[in-house]
Design brief:
The chain has about 250 residues and is mostly helical. It has helices at about 5-30, 30-35, 40-70, 70-100, 105-125, 130-135, 140-150, 155, 195-205, 220-230. The longest helix is centred in the first third of the chain and has 29 residues, at about 40-70.
């Protein structure tokens, strides 16, 4: 493969890493309990991390390279389009983060599209843009490594061997997810014994804290706080090994 085609492949890899792989890494690291529930281990996670960075852009670039031998102009146009689309995706990510998600995506999309077209045009005509993309090549290794070792996903890669403290106190916590208290109450604000006799009996023989609320909206952070008595850390997955000091 000639040098220019190798550089084209390299630049597609770099753009893909920032436009697609990194947003997916952020999504995956916020859903570590789901990954663990699916039985994912260190090998699976490593393959996903580097596969997201390499597989799709390499396949695309190889197809583009094959096309270049027969139709050079068509291949150049496709490469320009790929750069424009990926640059627009990067611009969209930057705009969404800068806007804090307050503006709908369809409003930001035209600006991202214009930025992508300008970036692709500069890429084809200005030497500093390809040079900049070459200088960003360490991202192909840095981004998956950060995902594997510096995010909540590291708990899958390197499971903690420390066990939680145990207690002889018989404590049972039952969580009814998605069951609002108002569904159980009558017009007097009490558990409706006619419709829910067992809940009413439980409330009569127990301490009923009707005004209690959780410290987070998501159960992934609210439940660790209930169990440990500590405010949840948003960077820590809801795993026992991350909240060792709990009853």
């Amino acid at each position: 493969m000639p040098g220019p085609r190798l550089r084209a492949l390299h630049h597609i890899l770099v753009l893909w890493a920032f436009a697609v792989a990194q947003p997916l890494f952020e999504l995956l690291q916020s859903n570590v309990p789901y990954l663990r529930a699916r039985g994912m281990d260190a090998v699976d996670l490593t393959l996903i991390a580097f596969g997201l960075v390499l597989v799709v852009p390499v396949v695309f670039a190889l197809a583009e390279n094959g096309l270049a031998w027969a139709w050079p102009r068509a291949a150049a146009a496709i490469h320009w389009g790929a750069v424009a689309v990926l640059a627009a995706a990067v611009a969209m990510v930057v705009l969404k983060e800068g806007d804090a998600g307050e503006t709908p995506g369809w409003v930001l999309a035209p600006g991202a599209g214009v930025a992508g077209i300008l970036a692709a045009t500069l890429y084809m005509r200005a030497r500093f843009v390809p040079l900049l993309m070459t200088l960003l090549s360490p991202a192909l290794v840095v981004l998956p490594v950060l995902f594997l070792f510096r995010s909540p996903a590291h708990e899958i890669l390197i499971p903690s061997t420390s066990s939680s403290e145990t207690s002889d106190t018989p404590v049972i916590v039952v969580v009814f997810d998605g069951l609002p208290l108002s569904s159980l109450l009558d017009d007097q604000g009490r558990i409706d014994g006619d419709w829910f006799p067992n809940f009413a009996a439980l409330a009569e023989g127990a301490h009923f804290f009707r005004n209690a609320t959780a410290v987070a909206e998501s159960r992934a952070y609210a439940l660790p706080a209930i169990v440990s008595g500590l405010y949840p850390a948003w960077s820590r997955p809801p795993l026992a090994s991350e909240y060792r000091d709990n009853p």
